């Protein structure tokens, strides 16, 4: 009988412990004890968001890596192509009609060659400046922290529970198993002594 009671207590306390990670969202004051009870995540939300942001920025990904990925070699040639097309469109619209077509074609060809030769270099230089500016002005950790803090606590709870549902269920069951073992040991000790 003690084993069953121990299993129920272990299982039930682990269920409560898991619920207390998120609940209560707003602090509840227990008057007699003058004790404030609030879920771990609601209580330490800002600290947790800050820590997650810092870990992501320091250990997982940086602004530099994001920008580098955006302007990889393949992307540079695509960007150069788009720039050439846009410049040619502007030239066609802005060059006066009195300029002979032969000269216009020479201008188009010269601009195409110039963009082909210098375009990627200019884009790389621009990208380096963007990386420098982005790293001085934008902190990925702050963006992540702000995003997490903007989530409603119920949404954070849903996300965590959906990701860790299986593991949390294992913790509940493990509480029951440990409670059963402790109850069995208690039963044996009661019988022996």
From TrEMBL:
The chain crosses the membrane at residues 173-192. GO terms for cellular component: endomembrane system. Its main location: membrane. It is found in: Endomembrane system. InterPro entries: DUF445. Keywords: Membrane, Transmembrane, Transmembrane helix. PANTHER family: UPF0754 MEMBRANE PROTEIN YHEB (PTHR35791:SF1). Belongs to the UPF0754 family. This is DUF445 domain-containing protein. The lineage of its organism: Bacteria, Bacillati, Bacillota, Tissierellia, Tissierellales.
């Amino acid at each position: 009988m003690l084993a069953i009671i121990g299993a129920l207590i272990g299982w039930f306390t682990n269920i409560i412990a898991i619920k207390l990670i998120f609940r209560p969202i707003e602090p509840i004051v227990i008057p007699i004890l003058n004790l404030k009870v609030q879920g771990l995540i609601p209580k330490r939300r800002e600290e947790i968001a800050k820590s997650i942001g810092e870990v992501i920025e320091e250990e997982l990904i940086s602004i530099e890596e994001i920008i580098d990925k955006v302007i990889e070699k393949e992307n540079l040639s695509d960007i150069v192509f788009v720039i050439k097309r846009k410049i040619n469109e502007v030239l066609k619209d802005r060059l006066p009609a009195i300029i002979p077509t032969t000269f216009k074609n020479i201008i188009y060809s010269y601009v195409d060659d110039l963009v082909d030769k210098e375009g990627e270099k200019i884009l790389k230089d621009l990208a380096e400046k963007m990386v420098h500016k982005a790293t001085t002005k934008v902190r990925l950790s702050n963006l992540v922290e702000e995003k997490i803090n903007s989530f409603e606590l119920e949404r954070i709870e849903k996300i965590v529970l959906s990701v860790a549902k299986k593991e949390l269920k294992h913790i509940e069951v493990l509480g029951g198993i440990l409670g059963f073992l402790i109850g069995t040991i208690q039963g044996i000790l009661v019988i022996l002594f």
